[in-house]
Amino acid sequence: MIDAERLDLLSDRAWPGLTNIDVDGWLVRTADGFTKRANSVLALHEPADVDAAIDQVQELYAARGLAPTFHISDAVRPSDLEARLEKRGYEARTPTLNLAAELSTVLERLRPARSPVEVRDSPSEAWLDAWWDVDRPEPRERYWDTARQVLTRGPALFGQIPGTAGGGSVRAVGRLALVEDWGGLACLGVRPEARGNGDAGAVIGALARAAQRRGVRHLWLQVVPDNEVAQRVYERLGFTEVGRYHYLTLT
User: Fold this and answer.
1) Which terminus of the chain faces fewer neighbouring Cβ atoms within 10 Å, N or C?
2) Is it the case that residue 166 has pLDDT exceeding 60?
């Protein structure tokens, strides 16, 4: 359905760094340390001098107080980059699966939603609050503004299910990045007290239908290998594995 390089480029546009620096064909992304994707090197082209490029990357990250980190997939160039980095002391972090599906298939397999979902072009404060409570380990006071910038840097849809009457909070959220005819699903979360009601599927369905109206035909997402429950849900919806990646970080 899609190759590793295409996936890497889609994911970069779906979750971009706030600054991008070219180092002889490598894209050095930074976002004040918020998430590995936005603070890692996308190495899809081979530099003329690989070791010199690695040195420059390390200097750039060190100047920003960040650990040098490379995104490693089957598309990485040169193909022996991982071995070169491991010799320098880089360690593997966050193995992740890429899954993809036809949007129409997902919609066919979703169960009817029990709750109405609000879909917006930008995240509300309540959306951000719920997402952070459910999904983010970072301190809010440090990364809140940075997170908002990353989330809204490219076109995306934000789905939310309001809490019960009088509760005032949002109980389920999701984000779908819009990149050409692809939609990147992320930030899917349901507050613990609201789980078991089909809210995650309702959010996915609402986002998918809204994206379909904008010309999206395919969906992709990332999931960690040990999250077997999520993998079974996504498999039921028609998602299949189309690639893997991990990060190498100099600690």
Assistant:
1) C
2) no
